[in-house]
Amino acid sequence: MNENESAESSQGLNANENGDIPINDSGGMDEPNLPVNEEENIIVEDDQNKDSSAEFDFPFDVDDPGNWDKIKQNVRDFLVERGPKRENDLTFPVDDLGRHFSPTHYFRVFPNGEKKNMRWLIYSVSLDKVFCFCCKLFKQDHNKTLLGQFANEGLNDWKNMSARLASHERNSQHISCFTSWIELETRLKKNATIDQAVEEQIKKEREHWRQVLLRILTVVKRLSKNNLAFRGDNEKVYEENNGIFLQVIEMIAEFDPVMQEHVWRILKKETHYHYLSHKIQNEMIQLLANEVKTSIIATIKEAKYFSVILDCTPDASHKEQMSLVVRYVDITASPIVVREFFLEFLKVDDTSGLGLFNELVNALNTLTLDIGDIRGQGYDNGSNMRGKHKGVQKRLLEVNPRALYTPCGCHSLNLAICDMANCTPKADYFFGVVQRIYSFFSSSTKLWQVFRDHVEGLTLKPLSETRWESRVESVKAFRYQAPQIRDALAYLAKNGDDSKTRSDAECMATYEMENFEFLFGMVIWYDLLLAINTNYRETGFDEALTIAKKIASEMKIEAIFREKRTIRKKKHFDDSDNEEEVTQSTLESFKVGYFYYIIDQALSSLQSRFEQFKKYEEDFGFLFKLEKLKSTDNKSLMNYCMNLEDLLKDGDVFDINGSDLFSELRYLKGAIPKETKRAVGVLNYLKQMDGCYPNAWIAYRILLTIPVTVASAERSFSKLKLIKSYLRSTMS
């Protein structure tokens, strides 16, 4: 391929009205306009030209010969193939002499009494004249005057009609046109017209390009689906480093005759447009993306209610990108499923609550989604998102009071864990030791091998500020393998390669791992991170103390707290001698200043950060928990329904009617199948009932539309690295 061959037309996806491939001046062929199957995104063949005798749409009355003065070849072929058409039961108008056309003229009576249909004679309703079918269609410039009025303006001499018909039938030019008519009619019936060979060639060429584009589009779909790079250093087939796309095309050409023919034409330079350049690749990717997005938007509009999930992150070029994810209940699926779809990244210049809100509104307008149909909004715990006065959630609530805000449950839990870990210096010091021991062993492969030689089970894990479960995994390795980790440190304290390694290992083994306070805190934190409950405050300390003493016994260290030197206040001469100093034991001091402190902080943080979820439990809990719905008495159920009506109303607009919802739920809670355990199961049952419980149908859809986390938006950030890589951001 030369440089000219790689420059493809951006209008290559257009075709003419008949679906044929237009021939360009350079001998190449433009790409046909191919329909796309919405379910599989595969090019399919249309049935447009399967029936050659099908009726055409003409801009004029093709049955009236008065409109045949200037017609094209395809119209004439259509009329000949169909044959002359006459109107039955037609009332013919009377002229000034009281005469009119008579249908008896359609037939000629011979002297022997036989009657013959003169099917070449046709009547024009618009002109009130008769014409000769064959002469009107097959007249030429040299004989149209000889054919007379029957072939030109038409004849309405009703008085002399019989004589004129007989005279025209004996006309040699009429016989010539009649012969041309019969010959063309015969060829059309045998499918053997003069341009039949050309039509077959065009049809064959069109099918070839359809099949080529089908294969190219399939390759584009597969590479896009697997996030694989398309291009290499050049864009020529059968050359080194030409990229995965062209290499897959080459592989298909080894087995597929259609692609083999296409590649052969490219190599022989028999085609100008090959549809393998980067422009066509990008165009196909965009077409597929638009098709997918259109399908998602259509499903969202079918569901009506949806929630928006937003999260922001900087890209490789240090520009803020906001991920837009939509959550909705897909009622078109069977069974019904709750879906969260990523729609797009929005570049934001203003990261304030107002700036982010304006970007959201503009995006929804572009996607033709109604902001009034939002029933939920989920963000992380950033102040510009969750702010009660100027945050995005507040500004959206001002426009749509029914867009219920939900803070991300995962972020809230992680922040609660961070509050616990930072509430006291001892807790902060404990996690510092955990991270320091991990960093020590992971600093070199030799140290890590020593760790693996002594510890055969769980490996050490680093701490993470954004993932609360990382703290559980980090502490778990210490909780169940503290003696082995101490032995690995003791081994390095004696056999380390350098003095720094030996010194660090000795300090961590002696002053950290053999410290009973560290072991006790390790047990407490592991139990606390696994599950937090109010009973742990009352019984957890004694249980953790028993386990810590057992671990200390295995490690052959004393289960006592290391005493710190007590700083005593110097007495002055005027101090009273009877003042007694209140002292606590080290165990009691640890219990009050450490254990109770982190437990109270945990309960306080969880209560404050999950307050919104408690509010949703009050509003939607009777719908979400089927046991609660079935056990609720009528009075309480009525209160729940009326409260939900108030929650889902905006002025005079209501999503549900509380009284009707109460009546429906009274029957519904006894009709739900026993195997149904979840709210989505109830929604599937309501779909089967097909409108029997309209208010319950709406209430359960809104319940499942409200988001719980922003995890989907977080996952989209990994795809942002593919879109805005370092190379893309730095290239010109």
Indicate the topology.
Elements: H1 3-6, H2 73-82, E1 107-109, E2 115-117, E3 121-124, E4 129-132, H3 133-138, H4 144-147, H5 161-169, H6 172-189, H7 196-225, H8 243-255, H9 257-267, H10 278-303, E5 306-314, E6 320-330, E7 337-347, H11 353-366, E8 374-379, H12 383-386, H13 392-399, E9 404-407, H14 409-421, H15 425-442, H16 445-454, H17 468-495, H18 499-513, H19 516-530, H20 535-554, H21 586-609, H22 611-624, H23 626-631, H24 634-647, E10 649-650, E11 653-654, H25 658-671, H26 679-689, H27 694-705, H28 711-723, H29 726-730
Parallel strand pairs: 5-8, 8-9
Antiparallel strand pairs: 1-2, 3-4, 5-6, 6-7, 10-11
The low-confidence parts are 1-55
Strand numbers in spatial order across the main sheet: 7-6-5-8-9
Question: What's the main sheet like?
Answer: 5 strands, mixed
Mean pLDDT: 82
What distance lies between the first and last C-alpha atoms, to the nearest angstrom?
26 Å
Strand content: 5-15%
**Annotation, overall tally of beta strands:** 11
> What's the shape?
elongated
What does this structure look like?
The chain is built from 29 helices and eleven strands. The chain is α+β, with helices and mostly antiparallel strands. The longest helix has 30 residues, at 196-225. Mean pLDDT is 82; it is low at 1-55.
Entry summary:
Helices cover 53% and strands 8% of the residues. With 732 residues, it is α+β, with helices and mostly antiparallel strands.
List keywords for this structure.
two-stranded antiparallel sheet; 53% helix; alpha+beta; disordered N terminus; five-stranded mixed β-sheet; elongated; 732 residues
